[in-house]
Amino acid sequence: MFYRLRNDFRLSVISLLSLCAFVGITPFALYRFWQGNMLAALVDSLILFSILSVLTYAWFSGDTKRSGFLMALVVSAGGLTIVNLLGLVGLFWLYPCFITGFFLTSSRMAVLINGITLLALFVLKLDSLSLEHLISFATTALVVSACAYIFALRNESQHRRLAHIATLDPLTGVKNRRAMEEELSRAVANFERHQLSCALVILDLDHFKAINDNHGHGVGDSVLNQCVQILGENIRKSDRLFRFGGEEFVLLLPGVDRQGMHSVVDNLYQVVRSELKCPSGPVTASYGATLLQAGDTADSWMERADTALYQAKQNGRDKVVLS
Q1: Are 111 and 250 within one domain?
Q2: 136 and 12 inside one domain
Q3: 191 in the same domain as 152
Q4: Which single residue of 35, 44, 82, 102 could bond 29 by disulfide (Cβ 3.0 to 4.6 Å)?
Q5: In a domain, 246, yes or no
């Protein structure tokens, strides 16, 4: 539970807001029931029930994007209802609604919801609110929303940047294992839905440890970067290259059949063999490749390619094995 709260910002906001709503609204609902103000008590209860329902949906479904949007709608609608019941005093409840909307949903959607909420205040023309009060509130609410919007935009930009960095290998600049696992799962899903063929290739640089031992890790890093450059220049834009770890790389080749896979791997084998070098001479690689098959999972697909790579190494390295 705590792991999900630490690692899912939107879920943590939904949970915290729900807790605050439960603590803040429940006493009012009970007090109004005790006073006999059944309408206000029922409205409080309905708002509380809606918020807790969204919270439950968020935790069980994991769909925090939709849950955040629903929560923003519930909070804004609840704020409008409170203004209708309490008049001028209720306006203060809308400020937190306007701010939290930017944490619950996208900045553009939050702006839209806040704008509709302000427009509804003027359209309803509540008897307890003068035009002066509405204009004063709208002005301050716009300032609050603008500040929250700027903060949300910066937060979204930083989140995208960090998410992008988290998928890159810091040495070679290609995508890392985490990104590879996502791409493999996506390829399997596309195959199940649209029968889009895809090939998986694992290549491992031969005797790489000897390069590090004999020439130092700086030379080893240079060889890895050379390998990435050579591979990048000899694959299509639609192909995906990943550093699996150490001296292993993975290629995802969408839309190829067995003959196409054989052609691509053979070309890479020849190019790497002739162009990749270190101070002690040429650097070769071993290759294991396989096509995505019906019933495959990402793990079984990867395991079959890894088995083919192991066979290539067992055959003396500098070999290609197609599974």
Answers
A1: no
A2: yes
A3: no
A4: 44
A5: yes
Digit-coded pLDDT (tens) for 166-215: 788 999 999 999 899 989 999 999 898 888 899 999 999 999 999 999 99
311 plus 280 within the same structural domain: yes
DSSP E strand boundaries for the chain: 198-205, 240-245, 248-254, 277-278, 281-282, 285-291, 320-322
Domain containing residue 14: 2-166
Q: Pairing mode, if any, of strands 285-291 and 320-322? A: parallel
Whether the model pTM is above 0.70: no
SS3 content of the chain, % helix, strand, coil (to 5): 70, 10, 15
Answer with the one of 117, 146, 166 that is the final residue of a domain: 166
One-letter amino acid identity for 284?
T
Task: Quote the number of domains for the chain.
Answer: 2
pLDDT in tens, 48-97: 888 888 888 888 888 888 888 888 888 888 888 877 777 777 778 788 88
Length of the chain: 323
Q: Which of 159, 116, 121 is nearest to 137 (CA)?
A: 121
Q: What pLDDT digit, counting tens, does each position of 229-283 carry?
A: 999 999 999 999 999 989 999 999 999 999 999 999 999 999 999 999 999 899 9
